[in-house]
Amino acid sequence: MKKKKMHLLQYMMPPVTHHSSATWKPRNMTMTNAFQWNRPEIWQEVAQIAERGKLDAVFFADTEGIYSEYENSYKSAVRYASQVPCYEPSVLMAFMGAVTKHIGLTMTFSVAGYPPYILARKLATLDHLSRGRVGWNVVTAFHKNASENLGLSVEQYHLSHDQRYDRLEEYMEVCYKLWDSWEPDAIVMDAENNIFADPEKVHPINHEGKWFKCKGPLNIDRSPQGRPVILQAGQSSRGIQFAAKHAELIFTLQPDREAMKVYYNRLKEGAVKAGRDPDDVRVCFGLQVFVGETEEIARAKAALHNSLVPAEAGVTILSGHLGYDLSKHGLDELIADLKVPGIQGMIDAYKHSSSKNITIREAGMLHGRGVMTPQLVGSPEQVADWMEETMKEVGGDGFLLSPAYLPGSLEEFVELVVPILQKRGLARTEYVENGTLRDNLKALNA
Amino acid sequence: MKKKKMHLLQYMMPPVTHHSSATWKPRNMTMTNAFQWNRPEIWQEVAQIAERGKLDAVFFADTEGIYSEYENSYKSAVRYASQVPCYEPSVLMAFMGAVTKHIGLTMTFSVAGYPPYILARKLATLDHLSRGRVGWNVVTAFHKNASENLGLSVEQYHLSHDQRYDRLEEYMEVCYKLWDSWEPDAIVMDAENNIFADPEKVHPINHEGKWFKCKGPLNIDRSPQGRPVILQAGQSSRGIQFAAKHAELIFTLQPDREAMKVYYNRLKEGAVKAGRDPDDVRVCFGLQVFVGETEEIARAKAALHNSLVPAEAGVTILSGHLGYDLSKHGLDELIADLKVPGIQGMIDAYKHSSSKNITIREAGMLHGRGVMTPQLVGSPEQVADWMEETMKEVGGDGFLLSPAYLPGSLEEFVELVVPILQKRGLARTEYVENGTLRDNLKALNA
């Protein structure tokens, strides 16, 4: 029987930290460059290594603000580089696209700050210039400082979770209409008759909905993929419903195989309910890999990395996620004693730590070192074994690699683990010739 | 006496036409590539040629819609590629920045569709990744289809000209505050003490004005230039006042030296009134150059180019500029007979054509072949002479080159004209080592 291959994506937060608060620390590990987050070269190198490893895509998370819940101030986030600085991802992706040919360029954009026309246009531009390699991770989030930065109206900021998803559904509808507004063969370039494009094959969208008005057509011809690949990371039940309907690639952070399986099954059932082929809805699990030539080397690396993470950096992020200022409590108080909405979900997610009964400090360490991404530590064979077994047991479609250091941790994975996965028939060995990101996603297990 | 050097910028509209409706026509002239507007390579080549010629910057105009005034439809613009397709310029500039080191990357963004935070963040990202080469051409315009695409409220769309400039002044204020929100030495990267950045050197902006609310700080550290170079092309008296106050580089399309001189003097007087050194307010005049080894070759090229321009393409643009549907009139009616607001300004601008008393068709040709940019046709020496004399007579600071075909017309200018200007001490021969765009602007005549 032919084995199922895994999708592999490289997670990043556009500088300076990603899932790990230690990432910025210079030469903390096997880094080939000191970490210069504000230079394109290091990101271009990451994209090239990912392409060498035949990964599906590189991915950038994004945010339009600084977590300011902890101590009711942005200061802790700035001090610990807790998801700040954070660059505009499409510009960064363009620099990476300029030195690569195959790797997918996928990134988060929130629908909070942009009219759909502007976002649809930006993504279509990048899809053209990268020859069809763009993916968009759709996010509704209005985090507090982002809302304050964008000057959102009080009504907008206080939208309920469900209202945000209603608004998002309409946002997607407008984007789809814009991307479809030029037929594939609209451009004729008939110089003799002065016809650049056939106007009968370009259509206004005349959208007038509850949330948005947009006349169209898009002022950009149809890009190679038409619509970019849609990504999603929804965890709420409404989020999962949205993902099952729209997404082609889904990320999730789950503490163990049991939880992965529950999520995976919910998503696939949702896809069927939404009338889609469940194989088109690919679920990838977040994973922070430490790999070395031997298990001992890997363990030593993980230990060094984890020792470089300050708990406060993670508590700052956790306060942001909860929308609650944890500085009101001592670091040694138990998470389970907090009376905070959303805390039970966190506690469930801590299952992969030794005990549910952890302190704020311990929770901070978990958030600071990987925002709850499970760490996988071992020799190349051990890492490959765990990934293979997880896929077999859970039924997942692949992994989203969260870097503990860059470009070192990706480079080690590509050098040490990918060849084993390829040998076992579990990973891509060639890209589709002149293929788009969607072509490559579809071809993996075709 | 040391001669004054000219600033030189390359104008473009991100694909497919620029100031000339003939640009898209494949191999219409000495093009080294068939014109593939949707591939990065041709734009990267343009940037590299401009850098070889030691120009200050490449420049992209931008619009978020399709001119739909003519026949009350987008169809004519689509047919003739009248400023459509038009790609998002920052993404395109990033691809160009990835293959160059010195050339400035300047582009238009309208303040209509974005909160200031989003635009400030995008420009700061590009300024980081390009090592300080970014310039922003500030535009307030709400053209009709763009407004309809962005879903602007009725109140926003019906802002008066002066209200738009009031709003713009506040927009700039918010951007400046955001760009200044990180002190230059805020980042300390002290790994031992877990301090990435010193939070006391990062400041909220707490802006609450008439038009915008923004808390800040920017979630991006200070970029090499801090604030990007500000460009402007205002023609109205309020526009000129804005430019004199904010802009470091100003573009203008003027029909002849007399008009150039009037504009130039107004700008410099405005700069003095605004308390600025008039040398910091550089005025560049639009120019469409046809140059050949001999005058005859240049004339033949111009004739071919102009014959490839359909009048309707220009009438479509002119209708957009006037906000008036010229299809209600025959192409042979006289422009002077139209009862349209703004028409007198156009008539004045037509002075460089043989007669003020031109028909709609003739006006369309002028708009279609260069949106009223004067054409300069001649041998390399003749072109250099005209440019030198114009600078001497008018007192201007340089030129904005409008391409009739790409990359050919830029390549010819760089190969044939630039060496003459350099030899005469009228053009840059070296960039400032590791200099930003602003460093290069300041150093030219320092």
UniProtKB/TrEMBL annotation, chains A, B:
<comment type="similarity">
    <text>Belongs to the NtaA/SnaA/DszA monooxygenase family.</text>
</comment>
<dbReference type="InterPro" id="IPR011251">
    <property type="entry name" value="Luciferase-like_dom"/>
</dbReference>
<dbReference type="GO" id="GO:0016491">
    <property type="term" value="F:oxidoreductase activity"/>
</dbReference>
<keyword id="KW-0503">Monooxygenase</keyword>
<dbReference type="InterPro" id="IPR016215">
    <property type="entry name" value="NTA_MOA"/>
</dbReference>
<keyword id="KW-0288">FMN</keyword>
<feature type="domain" description="Luciferase-like">
    <location>
        <begin position="26"/>
        <end position="397"/>
    </location>
</feature>
<dbReference type="Pfam" id="PF00296">
    <property type="entry name" value="Bac_luciferase"/>
</dbReference>
<keyword id="KW-0285">Flavoprotein</keyword>
<dbReference type="InterPro" id="IPR051260">
    <property type="entry name" value="Diverse_substr_monoxygenases"/>
</dbReference>
<protein>
    <submittedName>
        <fullName>LLM class flavin-dependent oxidoreductase</fullName>
        <ecNumber>1.-.-.-</ecNumber>
    </submittedName>
</protein>
<dbReference type="InterPro" id="IPR036661">
    <property type="entry name" value="Luciferase-like_sf"/>
</dbReference>
<keyword id="KW-0560">Oxidoreductase</keyword>
